[in-house]
Amino acid sequence: MPAPSSTYRLQITPDFTLRDAAGMVGYLRDLGVGALYLSPLLTSTLDSEHGYDCVDPTQVDPQRGGESAWAELVEAARAAGIDVVVDIVPNHLGVAEPDQNPSWWSVLKEGKDSPYAGWYDIEWERFPVLLPVLGKDGEDQLALVETDDGAELHYYEHRYPVAEGTWSPGDSARAVHQRQYYRLVPWQLGRDALTYRRFFTVTSLAGLRQEDPEVFAATHTRIAKWISDGDVQGLRVDHPDGLADPGGYFVRLRELAPDAWIVGEKILERNESLPSWPIQGTSGYDAMFDAGAVFIDTSAEKQFTRIYTSITGDHVNIEDHILEGKLNAAYELLEAERHRIARLAPAVEREPLESALAEIAARYEVYRSYLPQGDGYLLAAERAAIEARPDLKEVIGQVTDRLHDPKDPMSVRFQQLCGAVMAKGVEDTAYYRYSRYIALNEVGGDPGTFGIGVDEFHRRMVDRQLYWPESMTSLSTHDTKRSEDVRARLNVLSEIGEVWAPFAQGFVERMDIQNRSLAYLLAQTLTGAGPIERERVQAYATKAMREAADQTSWTDPNEEFERVVHAAIDRAYDDPDNAERLRVILDMVTRSGWSNSLGQKLVQLTMPGVPDVYQGTEMWDDSLVDPDNRRQVDFAACERILQGTEAPPIDATGAAKLWVTGQALRLRRNRPELFTGYAPVPADGPAAQHLVGFDRGGAITLATRLPRGLAAAGGWRDTTVRLDGTYDSLLRPGTFSGTVEVAQILFDYPVALLVRR
């Protein structure tokens, strides 16, 4: 089965169900979408907005419409000729509410005798299963409640099973609690005393043992039926790095779905290649960086480093911020995982061994190895750890053979730890601490690389076409820290550093926040997002400062520090002088931001790979990090604007972006033969560096980069491109051939999509 021409991601929630999605199929067909790409659909915790906390993998979630709405959606998609792609979550199940998860309830009630005991990655030799849920009141609020089939323990609204034969009427809740296969413990122990593998630091998500073929089969029954019934043509696999054996998992998944288009949520670091898995590629974070970074003025790096350090006083580079964040994750956030690995080597002195594990994991250059693939990354990390901590050389030598053995449980768990250390230390810590240029602080991004030039962009695209032509490409996702349009507006700053510096200096000083890097991050956030509701900025600030974990954190909130930050944001909105200064900088950013947005959108939609459009981003989107980026979309407005038959003006409505998106998607769907290759289309002349152009095999993309610099230099002037035939313009009327002035093609739109006759 060929890959879809494109995908469109919809967040299916209790408020936007599969039935609502079925009603969107006509709009998506008209937009040109090749496949409907759905967030997780299997039964999740009640009221879950995201669906990544599945509690029953055997059925479609009733609160998302259930099986009947699923059937309606499948029928509508088939009638419209649209494929269906579903996001699946093999790494874990939700266990926050045991009574909602039948398999977890059984494990807690029956222990090792449960038929589901082998599902979960539980350290059974450390009896009982520890559940970190108790508050300050401890067991005082536990209640023993008789039911029709026995008894339960209740802690406020939370319910837990009671094993048969472990209670009698009149027993105290405390006494019965002590007889169970589980133990409710203070929530703080989730950091260092867990007896089951969790998802990163989320104790309400318990890891599954997908390396066991029986567990794989049991947890993929509904997915297998989707495939066998022909209802689903593609799968996006969430967080494969958490699995014990990602490669083996993908082999089994390919056997289950031999013809499906499969992509994995794999985040690649600089110069890292995708492992040799039987899939079509990644979910697109690598492409996201490429498509955006080419619209940054790389020559401004030193200027922006000076601006950042002078305003914030932060002279620590991104590499050191990352190392600090990863060490914090390895030593503090992921203690339980480190303890478990150390217990696998009882003959080695415990404390230095745990330090060695933390130091090695923190120095991994990539998320993890897939031994024997990636063994070099482990060797490099060991050498770096010994160089930094020569006192650990002996203990590292004691376990190095085990860490390099793919079959050794110690090695397997260490690889899983490395991915968690990277995710928590980098994306969720360092990227909120280091704010030199936050357009680059994105999942899969590279804040240390201040944009890329056109030649480097072409080199990357040639490789993408050669090796991963069916990998997904993305600009925004449910996990991005800021939307594509926010990043596009921020990219304008690289052209106006001389104006940005005094504005940012004044903004940070007026904020009067002790953490000046946070204040600088907020200055960029307000500039990138524009005049959005202050409540959204306040919510964003709370998440940003707690993730950074400098003066406050999720587990130990500093209420006074947070109050100061929120008061400063209020001043930014309420003080007339602040508001006027922000208006001036926004006036400079807005129109050039629109140009960057259209440019990176067209590039992403036409570059090698399968382009994904995240819901609502066919229009301007000012979203920040989740849950802000999961707000309901005004699809009715999108549908009205889509009815237009002529290119709209580029203005605040966002109609121009919808026009560009629709034209590109329909061309990819209707003329796939035009997108089978890749060749740069260089410009010649005084403004050549302001054009990024490429030919996909009959479809040519031209996009303006660095629009303010272009205008300041007098526009395109006599800059030309050479066309090897006659081409019609899809976005604006026109036919071109031979050597053509760029100004004739891009006379009122900053982008063009040309089709060879």
From TrEMBL:
Q: Name one GO molecular function term.
A: (1,4)-alpha-D-glucan 1-alpha-D-glucosylmutase activity
Gene Ontology biological process: alpha-glucan catabolic process; trehalose biosynthetic process
Q: At the top level of its lineage, which domain of life is listed?
A: Bacteria
Ranges where the Glycosyl hydrolase family 13 catalytic domain occurs: 11-653
Gene3D superfamilies with a match to the protein in the record: Glycosidases, Maltooligosyl trehalose synthase, domain 2, Maltooligosyl trehalose synthase, domain 3, Maltooligosyl trehalose synthase, domain 4
Q: Which InterPro entries did the record assign?
A: GH, GH13_cat_dom, Maltooligo_trehalose_synth_4, Trehalose_TreY
Return the SUPFAM superfamilies for the record. Answer: (Trans)glycosidases
**Protein name stated in the entry:** Maltooligosyl trehalose synthase
The protein's organism comes out as Raineyella antarctica
